[in-house]
């Protein structure tokens, strides 16, 4: 990791209490940034704050309860970062929820709307209000969004999730083009099989084993692997990169649809067994 290459920067991380968001929040702190975390899980946020304190980052991390599907919550999170931490340089729009295992013909409209409200609208609101704050400050900035390899390829199952994640990729490109003249970079990360609570569903060791068996790379991806990509895209080392969809997946997409389908089939089987 670069030595304090984000020193003096202020970041907002949504979905920052667990998984990829938590790893990113801690990684940004290690790189010198001060971080405002937004999440709906207050208990997990308390654990994050305790961990940050134990790592010597107690004065670098703040928390504000935030439902990213609610515009007032997102606007309040951004304003809290500016008011309490003094500026805004980085936004990591990471909050997301999973899909149910239903074919398109059986997906309830309410479920479709909820997945889009969090996974797509939440990113839109983070870009909207984050960019407003950066434009007001006049110094540019970096916005990083979380999509998924499910937003890059199609298969049966998870229609709401896949469609929302695809929307995030193109929204990123639109924002990148619009905001580039103001020196605001906008990129998106597409994780593959990463050992997060949402993927492992309580069985981290089992998930690790089947990921390492199915994907080309011999080790399962960790939230910290994605966090490293977030730090890079947020830093000046990525000054000429905008509108990019960066895949962090251990070679899954490179291996083609067959490998991706195997991962999805394994997740579907696990979800079906929980019904």
Automatic annotation (TrEMBL):
Alphabetized GO MF terms: oxidoreductase activity
Single GO biological process annotation from the record: steroid metabolic process
InterPro entries according to UniProt: NAD(P)-bd_dom_sf, Sc_DH/Rdtase_CS, SDR_fam
Pfam family, one: adh_short_C2
UniProt KW Ligase keyword: no
SUPFAM superfamilies named in the record: NAD(P)-binding Rossmann-fold domains (SSF51735)
Keywords of this entry: Lipid metabolism, NAD, Oxidoreductase, Steroid metabolism
Family: Belongs to the short-chain dehydrogenases/reductases (SDR) family.
Name of the protein in question: 2,5-dichloro-2,5-cyclohexadiene-1,4-diol dehydrogenase
């Amino acid at each position: 990791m670069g030595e304090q290459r984000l020193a003096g920067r202020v970041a907002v991380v949504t979905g920052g209490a667990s998984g990829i968001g938590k790893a990113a929040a801690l990684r940004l702190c290690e790189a010198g940034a001060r971080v405002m975390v937004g999440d709906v899980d207050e208990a997990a946020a308390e654990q994050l704050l305790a961990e940050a304190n134990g790592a010597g980052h107690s004065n670098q991390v703040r928390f504000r309860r935030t439902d990213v599907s609610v515009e007032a919550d997102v606007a309040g999170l951004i304003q809290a970062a500016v008011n309490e931490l003094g500026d805004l340089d980085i936004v990591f729009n990471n909050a997301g929820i999973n899909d149910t295992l239903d074919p398109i013909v059986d997906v309830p409209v309410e479920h479709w709307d909820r997945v889009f409200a969090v996974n797509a609208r939440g990113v839109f609101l983070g870009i909207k209000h984050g960019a407003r704050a950066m434009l007001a400050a006049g110094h540019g900035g970096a916005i990083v969004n979380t999509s998924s390899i499910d937003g890059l390829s199609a298969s049966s199952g998870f229609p709401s999730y896949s469609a929302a994640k695809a929307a995030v990729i193109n929204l990123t490109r639109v924002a990148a083009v619009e905001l580039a003249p103001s020196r605001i970079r906008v990129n998106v990360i597409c994780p593959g099989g990463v050992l997060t609570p949402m993927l492992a569903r309580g069985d981290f060791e089992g998930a690790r084993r089947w990921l390492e068996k199915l994907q080309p790379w011999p080790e399962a991806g960790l939230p910290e692997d994605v966090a490293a990509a977030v730090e890079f895209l947020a830093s000046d080392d990525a000054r000429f990169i905008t509108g990019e969809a960066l895949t962090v997946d251990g070679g899954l997409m490179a291996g083609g649809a067959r490998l991706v389908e195997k991962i999805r089939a394994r997740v579907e089987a696990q979800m079906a067994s929980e019904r």
